[in-house]
Design brief:
By secondary structure, the protein is α+β, with helices and mostly antiparallel strands. The protein folds into four domains: about 160 residues, Glutaredoxin (3-Layer(aba) Sandwich); about 325 residues, Alpha/alpha barrel (Glycosyltransferase), CATH 1.50.10.10; about 60 residues, no CATH class; about 70 residues. Helix content is about 50%, strand content about 10%.
Length: about 675
């Protein structure tokens, strides 16, 4: 039976469409593709990657565009392409298999499966010669030693099911001492000299920065703030940050944050916007506020597609990694002239030797320029010149979870920066996302060009979007946002919560496609885990809804935090967002209800500026929210009611009194 032709042309994933013209007979992951492997009695060759991935492009050019390689693939395999961002459930299952077999993972991921989906050999990137050898070896083993294949695939499947059991039941109480323990463990891994945690390659520790800021707000100790300043400064001044246009690259390949892996992801920039905005709001640090403003500008300028936000900018342009971003002294001189060119080279650390390939340099800004007007002139000229270069491709896929993170970040940045249009952008994104990505009452994972894909939303989609909607509700008072958020939370409780283990969550719904194992990864990685995100949303929502739902949400949040407290005790580096949520929980969470009849209330604005991260702030007339039930203005003045958990202080009517009640300085 001849293999099916390449079917990726109609995909809703830009990554899959990149491979639509390959001579490989790629198919999407469908029941028909799996059935074809069974009919032909051949293995499945599963390739998983994403549109902005540099090494995915390399393997595509070397192998998937090559007729010789394609002929071997088509003859002996059913070849399936998966976008890991569109199908994170498949990525999670087979990444666990890859790590179990090889001790490491990455993309492109290359897995060989039995027709029923059990992996028996996994790896990542292979150069063409090694890949051809591998194809021949797998084909021979499949034909001549099928028993060994079945035995290996059974062993891997058993290991994946064992891994899926997750954390043991029971853990320490969520209390300040546990948060302090987690912080001290994290700080032992800090690179005090260069910023960041651990060794190269270094990834932006977004969730950890947010958590450390919350610890600082709770304790007042500089110990957790200092690494935020060191790491935040090192990243903002290094090559991982785009010194001309704003926005962060995926990670730094070196320990000094000089040379990035150049792809720019929506989720990284949303999470970092939130962290820098929080740092700037709390301390007034001018660098933090500048980076927050520029990162918001990058999101709105480079990743926006209508009202929603696209997924990524590619690492490559015209097949060359980083070519859009790097400079030589000669190129600076050509654009700027001798005097400004030399000044810019010194300022941006551009040397004849270079910091990247072929004597080029990634721009850094280790010190602020002494001539702001000259700097803006130089930067504008370089940006104009850069715009004439071949630009990186953009992955225009709209991912629900990442847009949810962006809604939260933009809304919170609007307060930190005093820029109301950022709140407007957040609200427009939410409205568009709800209008497009909810189909027949259920949330979908992704869309492209206004066409919603078939992939069902996972836990992180529901949770991240719910948190964004709850943030909008607090800042606008529009009850429609609260209703949409609680609808998502109710669906999550019904379809994603583990009925056998309170506080545990699956990443896929109980009515989604049933894979070899049902993914349930509680660890925070590049993005927070779905479980830690749902804990945040439930904890917040429990103080914004009626009594019955407040009890249900509150108990679910408490059970979720308790079930995952072993992560804070044993692996806090992989639990940054868990720590941030726990910090909010041990403070009550803190709630401020401002009784006012004015949307521009100065006291309400002060409350939003003064509260720690994770706090809940609402404002409005008496009884307009459960937090304002029975609480009114006092003596004709707006009044703020500060509560911790279910315990409330006496109301205050001035910003200084409110600051005292919150334990912060003004």
């Amino acid at each position: 039976m001849s293999p099916a032709a390449n079917t990726l042309g109609g995909a809703t994933s830009p990554y899959l469409r990149q491979h639509a013209d390959n001579p490989v007979h790629w198919q999407q992951w469908t029941p028909d593709a799996l059935a074809e492997a069974g009919r032909r009695d051949v293995p499945i060759l599963l390739s998983i990657g994403y549109a902005a991935c540099h090494w995915c492009h390399v393997m595509a050019h070397e192998s998937f565009e090559d007729d010789e390689v394609a002929a071997a693939m088509n003859a002996d395999f059913v070849c399936i392409k998966v976008d890991r961002e569109e199908r994170p459930d498949l990525d999670a299952v087979y990444m666990n298999a890859t790590v179990a077999m090889t001790g490491q993972g990455g993309w492109p991921m290359t897995c060989f499966l039995t027709p029923d989906g059990r992996p028996f050999f996994c790896g990542t990137y292979y150069p063409k010669p090694q890949f051809l050898q591998l194809l021949a070896a797998v084909t021979d083993t499949w034909r001549t030693r099928r028993g060994e294949v079945e035995e290996a695939s059974d062993q891997v499947a058993g290991e994946l099911r064992r891994m899926a059991a997750g954390l043991p039941d029971g853990g320490p109480e969520i209390e300040p001492a546990l948060c302090d323990h987690a912080v001290m463990a994290v700080l032992r891994d800090e690179d005090v000299e260069r910023g960041g945690f651990g060794r190269a390659p270094k990834f932006p520790p977004s969730a950890l920065l947010e958590a450390l800021l919350r610890t600082y707000e709770r304790t007042g100790s500089p110990l957790p703030l200092d690494p935020v300043v060191r790491t935040g400064t090192a990243m903002a001044r290094g090559g991982i940050y785009d010194q001309l246009a704003g926005g962060f690259a995926r990670y730094s390949v070196d320990a000094d944050w000089v040379v990035p892996h150049f792809e720019k992801m929506l989720y990284d920039n949303a999470l970092l916007l939130r962290a820098y905005a929080h740092w700037g709001r709390r301390t007034g640090d001018p660098l933090a506020l500048r980076i927050a403003a520029e990162t918001a500008g990058f999101l709105l300028g480079d990743l926006a597609d209508g009202d929603m936000f696209t997924s990524a900018l590619d690492a490559d342009a015209a097949g060359i990694e980083g070519s859009s971003y790097v400079w030589t002294p000669a190129q600076l001189n050509e654009v700027l002239g001798g005097d400004d060119g030399a000044w810019a080279a010194s300022l941006f650390e551009v040397t004849e030797r270079g910091t990247f390939e072929h004597g080029s340099s990634v721009l850094q800004l280790l010190t602020d320029p002494d001539d702001a007007e000259r700097f803006e002139r130089v930067r504008s000229a370089l940006l104009a010149a850069r715009s004439r270069r071949v630009r990186p491709a953009r992955d225009d896929k709209i991912v629900t979870a990442w847009n949810g993170l962006t809604i939260t970040a933009l809304a919170e940045a609007s307060v930190a920066l005093g820029v109301p249009p950022l709140l407007t952008a957040a609200a427009q994104c939410a409205e568009a996302l709800l209008g497009l990505h909810i189909v027949d009452g259920r949330l979908r994972r992704a869309s492209l060009g206004g066409v919603v894909g078939d992939s069902a939303a996972i836990l992180e989609d529901h949770a991240a979007l719910a948190t964004g909607l709850l943030t909008l509700y607090q800042l606008t008072g529009d009850a429609a946002w609260l209703t949409s958020a609680t609808d998502l939370l109710d669906i999550a409780l019904r379809h994603f919560a583990d009925p056998q283990r309170p506080g545990r969550w699956f990443d896929t719904a109980d009515d989604a496609e049933q894979l070899m194992v049902r993914p349930a990864d509680p660890l925070d990685n590049a993005t927070p885990s779905g479980a830690s995100l749902i804990a945040e949303a439930l904890l917040t929502a429990a103080h914004l809804v009626d009594a019955d739902r407040a009890t249900r949400y509150g108990e679910a949040a408490e059970a979720t935090l308790r079930a995952h407290s072993p992560l804070l005790a044993r692996a806090p580096r992989s639990a940054g967002h868990w720590l941030a949520v726990a910090e909010a929980a041990v403070r009550g969470p803190l709630q401020v209800a401002v009784a006012t009849d004015r949307p521009d209330s100065e006291l309400l604005a002060a409350a939003r500026q003064l509260v720690p991260g994770g706090a809940i702030v609402v404002g409005g007339a008496v009884d307009s929210s459960p937090l304002l039930e029975g609480r009114d203005r006092i003596g004709g003045n707006d009044a703020a009611y500060v509560c911790r958990g279910r315990t409330c202080d006496l109301p205050v009517t001035g910003a200084r009194e409110l600051a005292d009640a919150l334990g912060v300085s003004v």
